Please model this.
Amino acid sequence: MQTARSKIVKPPVTRVGVVGWVRANLFDGWLNAFLTVVTLLVLWKLVPPLVQWALIDSVWNTTGNACRETSGACWSVITANLRFILFGFFPPEAQWRPAAAMLILFALLFVSRERSHWRQWLAYAWVFGLIVMAALMRGGVPGLAPVDYDRWGGLPLTLLLSVFGLAGAYPLGVLLALGRQSKMPAVRLISVIYIELIRGVPLISLLFMGSIILPLFLPEGVTLNKILRAQVVIILFTAAYIAEVVRGGLQGMPQGQYEAAASMGLNYYQTMRLVILPQALKIVIPPTVSILISAFKDTSLVVIIALFDLLKTTQTMLHNPEWMGFSREAYLFVALLYFLGCFWMAQFSRRLERELSTEQG
Amino acid sequence: MSSLSRFTLSVLLVLLTTSGSAGAATLEEVRARGYLVAGVNGGVFGFSMPDKDGTWRGLDVDTARAVAAAVFGDAGKIKFTALTAVQRLPALQSKEIDVLCRNTTQTLTRETTNGLSFAHVNFYDGQGFLIAKKLGVKSAKELSGATVCVLPGTTTELNAADFFRKNKMAWKPVVIEQVSELGKAFFAGRCDCLTSDTSQLAAHRSVAPNPDDYILLPEIISKEPLAPVVRHGDDQWYDIVNWTVMALIQAEEFGITSANVDEMLKSKDPQIQRFLGVTPGLGQSLGLNDRWAYHIIKQVGNYGEIFDRNVGPGTPLALPRGLNDLWTNGGLMYAAPFR
Model:
């Protein structure tokens, strides 16, 4: 019981506030104190030269030769070649079109982040948006000159391969996972063979097969365009991995869930759609997203079949003697773009997990 | 690529070349399609590379444009497909492209086993060494014990190994994956010398901190005649590509340029009259318009113009004509008579 005489004693200054935080988190014991000092030392050695190189001494808008005079970063390699890096062979006078198409895509992705927006209008918006994007990229409608597939490149190509690759691979992967769990032997066998065959072969081999061996088997005169071939390969490849992740989720479902669904008289389709998949897919969000992220980065492998995706356009302009040798800056720039894409996906998945969480807090 | 898949690929190629090469009329297909499809490298400055605006530039690119000009009278009716070293031959076999202008060296096995026909050479290259002047080396024979920067997996690496073995010298290869990194490593002092095709060495030297500090050694250790390639079995198409390259060379020998070709139409020289189609006959026998050579020169220029524009003294490569000069100037560029 508290009496009038007792007085409130503040905790010692070394336990609260800034000092307290520092003590608790940075100098908690000898090992941590040592690590903190080492980290600070490393940062002190690394950060100022980096800032000096990347910002203070850097040049932003010069020729290649002027760049060779400075000691800092030559960001001119990006600014001078930005058009080719981002849009590749797309006709310069029409480059607003891929830019607009990408803006539409970003807008759609951004709106789709909110689960409260997942209604019918959003589906219509996607369909409409995709048609507009296709018209912008392909042309051939009144007012827009046609642009051939072989002129697509740069960032739009990377995004196209990724977004459609992921959007195509996910449903296919879920179907394959269900097929592998199926009670019908034929379906199960086909799914198992497909998954194991695709998983047993590196993506590079598949891309090679798609681009080199496939055309040899097509009838004369029939040519599938390179982008489509790569796109199909990416979808088929990613789907096999997603299938295995989803299978993990399906196997994690307690038998009681199936039995409860059966006892309510739900058929197979209803059981899966209403009971099993919503739970199973939710459990496997983290591994699914890491597969999607790695698939996004894997699209850069199309350089080996000479598609001019973001990485290839960047490498190409480094072959120009004027800009030869500034690969550090160029690759940093590309890394930044890839990082933004991956970070966005990771953020989205964490948010989705939080919103879908049914645990009572 | 593993040796197994390379084996499978070559089996496929052999199968295809033995079965499907019988005289398909490429010219008709190209005409019906309305444009030529040319396979190019895509990453070699001066030979085939897109510029900032995404327009293809280079010596190989212009050679392909000349073929389009010969066929259509319009050098713009062409599409370029970038191909990797592995893709280039299958792309030609599967008819994905009509002609391959991708710094491809003419060799015996490529003509026979792979079923390809090489037209007239449009660039004579050869492998050389780039070295810092201050080392005082005057000949590649003095390179014993040197560290050498080289790209992996190309004939370049093998040629260099052959050279050092033949001359009983020790060497230490420093293998660097990316072309754009190769020069960087060399100038940073990671190796004593750099070996590659001389046209590439020139590109590297041009970006050196101080280009005059480096020299090309006089030894050229390999022959690399680079030529446009077509499929075996379509002789008419082969003739068109072959004589297009010769027309570029012949025009330079005649002194016909894109600037004076219209005046040259009035020339009294019967050879030039035949060449430009003022006297009809030559174009028709190729299955083309008699003005084919006129269109080539008017729209693309003669060989000398193409050389100067892409790799000559005014460009960062600044290559001397050397072997690629006309035979009259001591080079190897020699066209058969147009008659």
About this structure: Chain A touches chain B at residues 64, 68, 80-81, 83-84, 87-92, 148, 150-151, 153, 205, 208, 211-213, 215-216, 218, 220-221, 223, 226, 304-306, 308, 315-322, 324-325, 327 (CB under 8 Å).
